Structures are given as C-alpha cells and as structure tokens.
Amino acid sequence: MIQPIFCDPKDEIDLKNWSLMVKISDETFGDVGMVVDKELLTFLLGYNAAHLKKAIAEKNSDELEKCREKAQNLRKIFARLDLVLEVEFSPESSSYPVIKKINNLAKSLDVI
C-alpha cells in the first residue's frame, strides 16, 4: 500500500496497450513511474479499449466526447490527496509497478 503525496497521470491513455502511466511521489520516493492495471483502468473509465476503438472507427463524436470527459475525470481521481494505492511490484527491474486498486484513506482505514 502506498499513500502518494502527488500523482501525475500521463496526458494520454495508450490505446494499443490499454494502459495509463502515472508518476507517483510519496514520502520515500519521487516521480516513480507506475502503470494502472488494465481492469482497473476499464473500471475507472467505465469503458474498455474495444469500445473506444469502435467509437473512433465510427467517428461517433458524441461517444468520443463522453469518453474524453470520463478520461478527464480520471485525472481528478489522481489529483485527490487522500488516495491509497495497492501496488504490485515485479522482481524484474525492467517492468513498471502496477497500480491494482485505488481507495481513499477513510475507506482504507475503515472509517466510513
């Protein structure tokens, strides 16, 4: 579990790999690159890569606008100062840590 003091999501979701890179800073390290888990990314956005690809292929401007708004809301989630992240670290130094779960501090402490 990590309680970041700052999260900076990359501006764009990688559609090919269905991933989002986030730079995380906590009390011990600064600007550690992490990747949001594919299933978590789908849950947070409310749509998956296939849905977005279909909207792009069909040039469905209404649906693309909805997807864009949801992606902007994702930035707001990472801007919160009370986040607790469940992160999976790989023993391989060449792979990024993966954010598997996001909660707020109150929920993590079972206060609410």
Structure description:
It comes from Panagrolaimus superbus. This is RecQ-mediated genome instability protein 1 C-terminal OB-fold domain-containing protein. GO terms for molecular function: nucleotide binding. InterPro entries: RMI1_C. Residues 16-105 form the RecQ-mediated genome instability protein 1 C-terminal OB-fold domain. It is a single chain. A five-stranded mixed sheet has the order 1-2-3-5-4. It has four helices and five strands, in the order βββαααββα. It has one domain. It is an alpha+beta fold and 112 residues long. The mean pLDDT is 91. It has helices spanning 38-45, 49-57, 61-79, 105-108; strands spanning 6-9, 21-25, 32-36, 83-88, 98-104. The chain is globular.
Which descriptors would you attach to this protein?
112 residues, alpha+beta, nucleotide binding, RMI1_C, RecQ-mediated genome instability protein 1 C-terminal OB-fold domain-containing protein
Topology:
Elements (H helix, E strand, L loop, with lengths): L5 E4 L11 E5 L6 E5 L1 H8 L3 H9 L3 H19 L3 E6 L9 E7 H4 L4
Parallel strand pairs: 3-5
Antiparallel strand pairs: 1-2, 2-3, 4-5
Report the sheet with the most strands, covering strand number, pairing sense and barrel closure.
5 strands, mixed
Low-confidence stretches: none
| Cα-based radius of gyration, to the nearest Å | 15 Å
- DSSP E strands, number: 5
Which shape, going by the Cα principal axes?
globular
Q: How many independent structural domains? A: 1
Would you list the SSEs in sequence order as H and E? EEEHHHEEH
**Portion of residues in helices?**
25-40%
Structural class: alpha+beta
Order of strands across the widest beta sheet?
1-2-3-5-4
